[in-house]
Structure formats: C-alpha cells, structure tokens
Give the backbone structure.
Amino acid sequence: MTERWEQEVDRAVRGLVAEMDDDARARGRTTLMEAIRTDENRTSSGVAEVVVPLAHRHRSSGRWLAAAAAVVALSAAVVVVTDAVGGERRVPNPPAQVEQIETADQVLQRAASNVDTGGEVVPDGKYLYVKQRAWWSRYVSGAPKDPDAFFVYLDELRIESWVPADRTQTWRRESENTGERQWLVGTEQEARAAGLNLDVEPPSTQQARCGKFREDADGCGAGGWYRPTERWVAGLPEDPKGMLERLREDSGATKPRPKLKDPNANPDALALQTAAEGLHSGLLPAKVRSTVYQAIALMKDIEITEKVANLDGRKGTALGLDDGRNRFDVIVDYDTGEFIGEREVQLKDSEGIKAGTVKTYTSFVSTTVDEPGQRPEN
Amino acid sequence: MAALYDAHAGELHRYLAARTSVEAAEDLVAETFLQAWQARASYRPERASARSWLIGIALNMLRRHFRNEARTTNAIAREGGRVQHAEAPDVMATARADAESRTRDLARALAGLRAEERDVLLLVALAELTPSEVAAATGINVTTVRTRLHRARSALRVHIEEGTHD
C-alpha cells in the first residue's frame, strides 16, 4: 500500500516533466498505424513495399523513419558466417526484426511458460522421434608416422532415435558419422600423411527393448540425465530451486571441483551441461523441461550470449556459462519453449585453437511419428 | 496496437523525456511501439503486464540510444573535432534552471540520487510501473526494487515537505 507521502513524492517528480503534447501524441499514433499498415501489406503481398510516411518529418533525426523503412524492407542478402563449424557457410539473413534483448531470466521464464504440454504425450502405438545433428571435436595426439603430431578436428554425427510410447517395447536408433570434417589444428592432408586413419565407421542401426543399446543405457531402469526413464523422472524435484540443487549434485558441482581446472570457474557450468544432457535426450516431460529452464535461470551468472542460428538454421536465444576455459551455451526458442541445441566455445587461445572457436555444436529436434524409421516431413 | 498506444504512450514519453530529452523521447516512443508491433507474437500477458513489457522494450531502445550517442561522440573526438560533453539536455536540467526554487531543489535532489535508485523511482513515478512490473521489466529482484524505491522517495521527501511549508 503506497503511503500518502510516497504518492506526493511521485506526484512531485511527475511535475518536473512536461506531458506529451496532443500534437506529438497524434503524430506518433498516425505514423505508427501507417507503418503497421505497410508491414501488413508486405506480409500479405509477399512484396516489400517501402512506404515511408511522408506526413512525418520530425525535427530531430530521421531515425524513426529509418526504423520504419527497416521494418518493411526485408533484405534477401545472404550472410556469410565463418566459424569453426562447417567453415564458411551461407545462411539466409535473419528477417529484419528489430533486436530485442532481454535478461536471461526473462528468456527462460518465457520458455518455461511456453513449453507445449499439450503435444507432450506420445499416443499409443506411435513413436517419439529424436534427432541430433552434432559437430563434436576430436583431439589426436601422436600418429603412426609422427609421434609428435597433434591434430584437432570436428566431425559430424547424426543420431536418430525412435522411442515407442510404451518404453518397454523396441526402440530403434540410427547413427552415422557423415565423414564431414572441420580442421581446427592441422589439415586432412597432413593427418593422412602422418598415418592417421580417418575412415569412418559405416552407418549403424540398432534395435533394443527399452532402448538398451548399451549396458548402461536402459530406458526402463534406474535412468539418469543421459537416459531419463519414467521412474527416474518421478523422483526429480518439482520446484526450480530443488531442481537446481539436483543438477548441481548430479553434475558433481557440489564436490570440491573435480572437473574444473580453473579455480575461478563457475561451478554451475557443469550443472548447465547436465541440464543440456537431459534436454537433448528428448525424454524429459514438458513439465520437467519447464522446471529445468527455471532452474537454469537461477544459475549463477547465467547470461544471454546471443541470438544465434543453430546447426540446422533454427533461430533461438543462447544462454551460457563459462568454466574458465570454455563457455557452454544452451539454445532455446522462448516462443515455443523448445530446446534447440547447445554449443561449446573456447574462451582462450590454447593448443593452437583460437579464442572464440566453436568446438561443439548440436541441433536437436523431436516430434511424434507413426512408425520406427519414419522421418518427419521437414 | 492503437489501444496500447493510447493507453501507454503518455507515460512512456514522460519517462523517456526525463532520461533523454523531449525531442528524443518522441522518436523513442515511436520506435518502442514499432518494435512492440514486431514482437507482438512473443508477448505473454500471464508473464508481464503490457506496461512492463513495453517499458522493457523502451529500456532497450534507450540503451541503444545512449550507445549511439557515445559512438557519435567518440567518432567526432577521433576526427579531431570538438565535442561538448554536456549532460543529456534533460528536462531535469530545465527544471533546475527553473526560477521556482522548490522545483529546482527537487530536481537537484533527484539528480543527486544514486543512479540505481533514481532509475527505479523514475520508472514508478513517471512510467507508473508497480515494483513488480519494474522487476519484470529490468530483471532486478523485486525486494531490491522496493528497497531502492523507498530510499529514493525518502531522500526526496524532505524537499516535498519543505515545499509544503512555503
């Protein structure tokens, strides 16, 4: 309840500022509605009509006009992105949306509330399809013809899983190393000359009840972040704070820094990676995903790194923490609450790899399909 | 969008004018609503009031405005030109020059507040946000918002009370 003296202070402060005059208000309204109409014309016709409101000639800069023009003039320019993932690749220029920077907390709260609980349950007889496309880094020390050789490269893996609605039934998994590489240290030619075997394993298909492709990967058993089972999920905390503590504990972050080599590293960087493990399994129910997002929002120093296109071109907001040597980001679409992917970025020049190099980059898709082996249309 | 503009343009303008100038405020209000239109699909009424959503966008516009001002200043300085480092020609400065001493004292006291306390007070007094809305728009913890608001108001209280005794 605001006390009277507080209201008086507020009123006095308001008295220091001139109110918006009627002309300015009317001008602003007219110009806004014209810009909206122009934007709607563009959307319906598919053609960029640059209609700059002529009535508005503001006495200060033309920034408002430039902003309106930027909205309607969609550029089809192609942006060349150079990074360690895929080398130089051409991606379409993002739509001329005005940049909207929000706090990490706002992004994650929105994502949490937008998680689609409606499309959550896989209908009987159908399958959850989960696809990961990943560039992972490989470090090679020593080669048959050169014991001092050192190489670092990224190679591309595609892993697709079909999980039956009844998890005790047969799961299917197809995985493939595509043979594509990006060299961070050394070249393909040098590596082959040093005697390194760069042959990739042929694509493989596995089928197993409960998804038990490995002894420790039982999709019906005790479970964990890597392979959330229904039993394991039932034991997770339902509140964000409890979830954060659980992530910290399960990531080993509460132990005396066994995995963090930098004493200044943020221990929640490990917890974030653990959260990502659960998210990219595709097996966390929507409600749990929502709580995990809220738990991430509570992590120390979590921040937005940028709006990025992930591996397959889907745009999302990256939120990250660094462990002193690398920054780890999760990428979410806060409009839909979907987890899109993750990446790891090296922070300092080290071992021949430059600061800013992306060392791991994965995209993630999940949806429902009718049969094992079936892929969604797009 | 028209209804949103009619409901909130005035308070946004008041706040932005206090942070920059009346001239800049008109542009910034327009840009805020334009961006709100672009981002309308992402607005979730259950997460934030329209007012705090709009002020969040306005704060981004403001940050960009100040960055552009700084870049222009630096560019001029690099070119060897002279840059007049004036305070933002804000309405507070105008008020300080006001012949009315009460207004002048209040404006001076407002300018003398800690920046984080002044920012919260301006959002509440001028943009008419509640403390919860300020927290939602800025990401600051709501308890911190309330503390800063209380301190700011308390610091200015003496000038209001002195004024009423004139």
